[in-house]
């Protein structure tokens, strides 16, 4: 079976050394030495300040909403946040879970990111934030979004779960927004098994979030404010330190896979239009086929040869009934989500497997037209 993705497993010897250290120190969590080391190393690698490691990418979003005051309701009415329906469920469900109503605004049909021109019309007196996603690592129109946020005094929290290491105009893409969040889930480009991080624009927001991830506790006998448990532990950090050491090799292997697909797929398909100011991180290989029928046939055809291509992201999140306000006004997201598949990509995938996948997809066109 060729899965759509495989977690990157770093050097076992190196991981063992870190685990030996954990056993010696007998310190397993609560801002341990390895969490501190990974924080420094990630700030350096990503070229950012104010990075906070957390237990997973969903809590990263929720802590960011709280730290930036999006969720604290001053009225009886739910606050709203404008977001994209073309994402993983956690983008919208994290809002809903925190009592913030997601309001879906359509995506651009080429970049598949939130269309800034449509945001204005969706703003109401309850809107508190914009939560765009750099989907598949593709940078959003960050300047246009910043302008709107400033005009209407809204917070911007980028779900940058897919955008590890992406540069925009020569600087980290994560510097945009009041906060940008990362997921370090096992299937992500950089991972800690489970894990995540928030990059804050302002130091005071980082400091508030630091308290929030540890129950609001600030001293042996002081509980300063409402908090939750969102701490990363030492085993997660050990994995992250090992994965980070090998990230360059991992990324160049993935670049090879990505280019192999791009060079050899002759099938009529649409690739994502990449933001011309941004670099690529080769996290995913999404493509949009001509119709939903063709997409279903290709997924089935690949399944028949034991290849796990996935319809990702499907369905469009406005169609998830417990989330949606049933706007129905997001035709681009519905269209793209019906016709998209993500092809297998991971560093250890073999060229011969890629060739098999490519000829299956190309061959499909020859038979069915
Ligand atoms: C993976 C992902 C998340 C959730 O991250 P977890 O670490 O799994 O909690 C959120 N948003 C997007 C876009 C994701 O892909």
From TrEMBL:
<feature type="modified residue" description="N6-(pyridoxal phosphate)lysine">
    <location>
        <position position="188"/>
    </location>
</feature>
<keyword id="KW-0663">Pyridoxal phosphate</keyword>
<dbReference type="GO" id="GO:0008483">
    <property type="term" value="F:transaminase activity"/>
</dbReference>
<protein>
    <submittedName>
        <fullName>Aminotransferase DegT</fullName>
    </submittedName>
</protein>
<comment type="similarity">
    <text>Belongs to the DegT/DnrJ/EryC1 family.</text>
</comment>
<dbReference type="GO" id="GO:0030170">
    <property type="term" value="F:pyridoxal phosphate binding"/>
</dbReference>
<dbReference type="GO" id="GO:0000271">
    <property type="term" value="P:polysaccharide biosynthetic process"/>
</dbReference>
<dbReference type="InterPro" id="IPR015424">
    <property type="entry name" value="PyrdxlP-dep_Trfase"/>
</dbReference>
<dbReference type="InterPro" id="IPR015421">
    <property type="entry name" value="PyrdxlP-dep_Trfase_major"/>
</dbReference>
<dbReference type="InterPro" id="IPR000653">
    <property type="entry name" value="DegT/StrS_aminotransferase"/>
</dbReference>
<keyword id="KW-0032">Aminotransferase</keyword>
<keyword id="KW-0808">Transferase</keyword>
<dbReference type="Pfam" id="PF01041">
    <property type="entry name" value="DegT_DnrJ_EryC1"/>
</dbReference>
<feature type="active site" description="Proton acceptor">
    <location>
        <position position="188"/>
    </location>
</feature>
